[in-house]
Amino acid sequence: MFGKRSDDGEGVRGDELNAFLGAGIEYRGRLEFVGTVRIDGRFHGEIVSPGTLVLGRDAEVHGQIRVGSLFSSGSIQGDVEAQVKTVLHGSAVLVGSLHSKALVIEEGARVEGQVSMQGEAAVLSARTAAALDRSAGLPAGTLPVEDEDAHLIEPLPAGEKTM
Question: Does the pTM exceed 0.70?
Answer without folding.
Answer: no
